[in-house]
Design brief:
Layout lengths: L1 H15 L4 H9 L5 H16 L8 H14 L6 H13 L7 H29 L3 E2 L2 E2 L10 H21 L5 H25 L12 H27 L8 H24 L2 H4 L13 H9 L2 H10 L5 H13 L2 H21 L4 H14 L5
Antiparallel strand pairs: 1-2
């Protein structure tokens, strides 16, 4: 049902704007809203997957994959994917993209959205989460369950299929494959650090220090969420990524700031706005908030943390949140956010390329003081 409604939505969107997909592309290429055209290409890439000659689809398999893709891939904010398009346009410094360039940048953006879906499907299983993007996690959908683990594997394997179809004749094709493989390895390794640090049954708050937190965040979030979109755009522009180590460092720092925001919103954000119910406290996560609490807590406050953090009990969660408020971590976060922004702006403006500066500032302005 959802796949039908998604296709109908795309059709009605084009109709209501008085435009075909090519018309939406023209508007996006010429500096207007990218999102409608970006969404329009999802169906094309999905059809590529469903007609891939490497696998002989049965009707049931085709229906399952289509439903799984529609449920997990296009329903997020799409910021990572659209950032490839926006970054590539900025790197072109006013030179208009042709239709093929625009499509290729969208295809790379969708590869990142596929990667994101793969990570989230598996992460929700590991964390025993309930909701994602305002709907039940995929593994909690009736008749899905742990089949979702194989669906995650399929999502990851769709990415090289898309890259092979559209980029194998490009001089940067091998660099793209290396980039996606490296970033996936970094992200999975960051997830491993997170899991072994928070492993149930071996709970130890003494391990929760800022350097440990920063290392987890750098690898688990920053590389794929911030560096990967810009790196894709740089490769499309013919650049050598070895020449942009400083840019990578800025984006990783930005990704750390983004994850701190995420940790804050997990506790203090509105679930209706952020699209999920936060579970960091119950899951004994090495969250920025608990790291800050440990640095500031007195003996009695630490006792409250030891007795309540990591317990899947609403009363325990409430006590931890009350402690966070007692330690005024909302103000601590506000001060951190302002200082991070100032530092990032200084580092960005030290970059020699004005186009690269614009790319980095566009990322920062999308996330500064976000509410979801």
């Amino acid at each position: 049902m959802f796949s039908i409604s998604l296709s109908l939505f795309a059709f009605l969107l084009c109709f209501s704007l008085g435009a075909t997909l090519s018309g939406l592309m023209a508007m996006a290429v010429n500096g207007r809203d990218v999102k409608p055209a970006f969404l329009g290409f999802y169906s094309r890439l999905k059809e590529d997957i469903l007609s891939d000659p490497a696998f002989d689809y049965t009707d049931d398999a085709r229906a399952w994959i289509e439903r799984m893709l529609d449920y997990n891939v296009p329903r997020g904010k799409l910021n990572r994917g659209i950032s490839v398009v926006d970054s590539y346009k900025l790197l072109k410094e006013g030179i208009e993209l042709d239709d093929n360039e625009f499509f290729l940048s969208c295809a790379l953006g969708w590869c990142i959205e596929w990667l994101q879906a793969y990570f989230l499907v598996l992460d929700d299983i590991v964390d025993d989460s309930h909701t994602r993007r305002g709907q039940p996690c995929w593994f909690r959908v009736p008749k899905v369950g742990l089949i979702a683990t194989n669906d995650g594997t399929l999502l990851r394997n769709h990415i090289p299929r898309i890259l092979k179809r559209y980029f194998r004749d490009k001089p940067y094709y091998v660099d793209l494959l290396d980039l996606f493989n490296e970033v996936e390895f970094q992200t999975a390794s960051g997830q491993m650090l997170d899991l072994i640090t928070t492993h149930e049954g071996e709970q130890d708050l003494s391990k929760y220090k800022l350097p440990v937190y920063n290392r987890i965040v750098q690898y688990k979030t920053a590389y794929y969420s911030f560096y990967l979109p810009v790196a894709c755009a740089l490769l499309m522009s013919g650049e050598n990524l070895d020449h942009f180590v400083g840019v990578k460092n800025i984006l990783v720092e930005m990704g750390t700031y983004f994850q701190v925001q995420d940790d804050y919103l997990d506790c203090f954000g509105d679930p209706e706005v952020i699209g999920k119910i936060g579970t960091d406290i119950e899951d004994f996560k090495c969250s920025w908030l608990v790291v800050q609490a440990i640095e500031r807590a007195n003996e009695d406050q630490m006792k409250i943390l030891h007795e309540n953090y990591g317990k899947k009990d609403a009363a325990c969660v409430a006590k931890v949140k009350a402690l966070y408020k007692e330690l005024d971590l909302q103000t601590v976060f506000s001060e951190y956010e302002s200082k991070s922004y100032e530092k990032l702006i200084l580092n960005i403006e030290a970059e020699p390329s004005k186009a690269v500066q614009e790319v980095l500032k566009s990322f920062l302005h999308k996330i500064y003081k976000r509410q979801k």
